[in-house]
Amino acid sequence: MKFTKILIANRGEIALRIMRSAREMGIKTVAVYSEADRDALHVRYADEAVCIGPAASNQSYLVMDKIIDAAKKTGAQAIHPGYGFLSENAAFARALREAGITLIGPSPESMEIMGDKLSAKAAAKKYNIPLVPGTDYAITDVEEAKKVAASVGFPILIKASAGGGGKGMRIVETADQFEENLQRAVSEAQSAFGDGSVFIERYVGSPRHIEIQVLGDTHGNVVYLFERECSVQRRHQKVVEEAPSSVLTPEIRKAMGECAVMVAKACNYVGAGTVEFLLDENKNFYFLEMNTRLQVEHPVTEMITGKDLVKEQILVAQGEKLSFTQDDLSINGHSIEVRVYAEDPANNFLPDIGKLIRYVRPQGSGVRVDDGFEEGMDIPIYYDPMIAKLVVWGENREQAMDRMIRAIDEYTIVGCQTTLAFCKFVMKHDAFRSGNFDTHFVKHYFTPDVLIENPTEDESTVLAMMAHHLQKSAAKKNTPLSQQTNAGSVSKWKLNRLN
Ligand code: MV4
Predict the structure, then answer these.
(1) Among the four residues 166, 258, 400, 449, which has the most C-beta atoms within 10 Å?
(2) CA quadruple 28, 16, 229, 173: dihedral positive or negative?
(3) Reported CATH class of domain 5-104
(4) Which of 114, 157, 173 to probe ligand 1 with, by most ligand atoms within 8 A of CB?
């Protein structure tokens, strides 16, 4: 069935990004919004908009019934959930199925298999996908855990089956630490996820995080759209993503890609999904988990493949066959994304929301900005503090990194602290530039004082202004008051630079 109208059950940059593809396809869009998002860009961009409640997500963007009602009321045939919120909620997928509304995403069954790490591992094991040595069943008995550990070797990582994204993980260095850690992990998993199942794996000490984009249709076809490298992250929050990875050989890429396709086939996957792997120092890769949604960092894949992943999602949700095969896909150039958060990297990345007093996006060749804000808007406190995704494309990695630095320098955000300077620090760092880094990059190399050595253009301006001002006031001290002028050269100069 061809859709004529779809509802986007999300907000911010991803809601806009989805609407843009829908509009290109001639599909009308319905926005839903909370009271905090009345003036948001996704509401203005949509053909229709429905208010679904107060600011708090659990009273708006997370309330299935309100969203389903909005779809029924507006006659939307399908719902795109974006990422976060209800995007990986199997109950929502099932409720849509019962309401006769198409989810632009996988089936509830695929979500359930992959939502639970143990059932995901079990599904992958059937296809001989490499897994980190450990257990593929829930473990509660300390003696048994010690036995497994003796065969796979310490350190060991305890993971919650219902966890994911690093939640509920514990490292165990020696056998005598098992008792305490296992009990704690079980009770933490029970209280955090309502499921105390944990399993153990050998701890891979310095891994790279590499994920494969897959796309499946309802006719059993699945392709991979190569990898994204997401090793630069801070406390499990990704900061920089790129495609392709600088460490994969064509052979490993093909092997990982084919494994990812098998993982998708293992759960009859339909739509866009991401299969996460760890890559160890010897370039062995291991399946970790599958994310059954469109990911934040999908643009880097779009930049190197030329595909519009949202369009493809909509087409397969309409029941169409994929219009290309694996052999039609190739990697063109290099793409990097940085996440621009309203957070203060000098102050432990605490959210620093405020009004965007001045907001000027970078432009020019090979630059894409996915955002949901305009100058003058407030960043709401209720949601994720991501302001934008800054994405660049270059013919090669070097050009992409240089272009990213240029784009960061062009980006003007006044009104809140942002992670831009931090991203510039990463782009200039030898370990990043050489490609020789792992998931410990931020922990190993970042301290707030590096920001002073890596100011963005805006910060350089402010620093120069401060220096200028200090010089003037020092000079003033030695000048009789009667001779002091108040030319306001600082503010005039600032205006020149900003306009
Ligand atoms: C691991 C690991 C080391 N060894 N598993 C973190 C997120 C979740 N998807 C799995 N994670 C990890 N699993 C074994 N056996 C290290 C991590 C990990 C990590 C993985 C990807 C990206 C960033 C990370 C940061 C810390 C730990």
Answers:
(1) 400
(2) negative
(3) alpha beta
(4) 157
Per-residue pLDDT of the chain (499 residues; tens, 9 = 90+): 999 999 999 999 999 999 999 999 999 999 999 999 999 999 999 999 999 999 999 999 999 999 999 999 999 999 999 999 999 999 999 999 999 999 999 999 999 999 999 999 999 999 999 999 999 999 988 899 889 999 999 999 999 998 876 777 999 999 999 889 999 998 999 988 999 999 999 999 999 999 999 999 999 999 999 999 999 999 999 999 999 999 999 999 999 999 999 999 999 999 999 999 999 999 999 999 999 999 999 999 999 999 999 999 999 999 999 999 999 999 999 999 999 999 999 999 999 989 999 999 999 999 999 999 999 999 999 999 999 999 999 999 999 999 999 999 999 999 999 999 999 999 999 999 999 999 999 999 999 989 987 777 777 777 777 776 777 666 655 554 444 433 333 333 333 333 2
pTM for the predicted model, two decimal places: 0.92
Q: What are phi and psi of 27, to 5 degrees?
A: -100, 130
CB proximity list for 118: less than 8 A, separation 6 or greater = 136, 137, 138, 161, 197, 199
Catalytic residue among 202, 293, 339, 403: 293
Distance 133 CA to ligand 1 centre (A): 14
CATH number of 133-202: 3.30.1490.20
| DSSP β-ladder status, 170-172 and 271-279 | unpaired
